[in-house]
Design goal:
mainly alpha, two-stranded antiparallel ribbon, elongated, disordered N terminus, disordered C terminus, YidC/YidC1/YidC2_Firmicutes, cell membrane, transmembrane helix
Length: 308
């Protein structure tokens, strides 16, 4: 089950970056972005960048920062909702630890494939009974809605006319910048560390610790092959994600923890019954022979007692 969760989280993490190039198509001849997402979202974002950069005289670096913040604030409620669902799942796991722990222990101690399968089914049934998802409570729908916005601003920061020739604080926006790459990696690493806050369940913490380097490494890898304008977008996005994580850690999580504990206090769950004994896997033929031998021995002993 742990491997399934890790795979699911890994796929979601990789998808968040790969989809940036999937929502918008690039014309092979002109090299410019095309498609509905670009037409309805990317192009207007590009115009907004040019407006702040040229019309307001703020420069393309500041313009990318402003537009990125605006876009992030628009989709922030979706990110908060997604984090709310994941946090609710985490708090339920913490509160129902005494219910799920026997199943988890049974799964760890299972020796045969049959025992493992039975333990997994019992664990899944207990999780389903208490409204706990095996995928961590993270819904796909809010993420899918956010993806076009991420994709659009990604291409707008890269392909808006004038960006590639501009500079920001002495950094050429048309070429990769190791300074911005380092900032982006650090910010996403900090955000990953903050995601561990308040997670009491050891199993969950171990899973999150194994994923803690994935997001920073992917951002760094993509930034190495991207112009500084795109990396600047990721730097601003990192700040916004840290802000979102603070909201989750210090506003949402305490409220959800209180709510879950109060609900369980009113309707306390019953501890799940698990089979403590090993299942008898003795072949039927052997069991029959053993039973007949016991009967024969009993008759002999009975005869000896009568002869006495």
């Amino acid at each position: 089950m742990k491997s399934i969760k890790r795979i699911a989280l890994s796929i979601m993490g990789v998808a968040m970056l790969l989809v940036l190039t999937g929502c918008v198509q690039v014309d092979k001849v002109t090299g410019l972005p095309t498609g509905p997402v670009w037409d309805f979202l990317g192009a207007p974002m590009g115009e907004a960048i040019k407006y702040f950069a040229t019309d307001k005289g703020l420069g393309f670096g500041v313009a990318i920062i402003i537009v990125t913040i605006i876009v992030r604030l628009i989709i922030l409620p979706l990110g908060i909702y997604q984090s709310w669902k994941a946090t609710l799942h985490s708090e339920k796991m913490n509160a129902l630890k005494h219910v799920l722990e026997p199943h988890q222990t049974r799964l760890k101690e299972a020796e045969t494939q049959e025992e493992k399968l039975e333990a997994q089914q019992a664990l899944f049934a207990a999780q389903k009974e208490h409204g706990i998802s095996m995928f961590g409570g993270v819904g796909c729908f809010p993420l899918l809605i956010q993806m076009p916005f991420f994709s659009a601003i990604y291409f707008a920061a890269q392909h808006t006319e004038g960006v590639s020739e501009a500079s920001f604080l002495g950094i050429a926006l048309g070429s990769p910048s190791w300074i911005l790459i380092a900032f982006a990696g650090i910010l996403y690493y900090v955000q990953s560390l903050l995601s561990l806050h308040g997670v009491e369940d050891e199993t969950q913490r171990e899973q999150l610790k194994k994923m803690i380097y994935m997001s920073p490494m992917m951002i760094v890898m993509f930034s190495i092959f991207s112009p500084a304008s795109v990396t600047l977008y990721w730097v601003v996005g990192g700040f916004m994600m840290i802000l979102q994580q603070f909201i989750v850690n210090y506003i949402i999580r305490p409220k959800l923890r209180k709510k879950v504990r109060e609900e369980l206090a009113k309707n306390p769950p019953k501890a799940s019954k698990t089979s403590a004994t090993r299942k008898d896997v003795t072949p039927e033929s052997v069991a029959v022979i053993s039973t007949s031998n016991k009967k024969k021995n009993k008759k002999r002993n009975s005869g000896k007692q009568h002869s006495r």
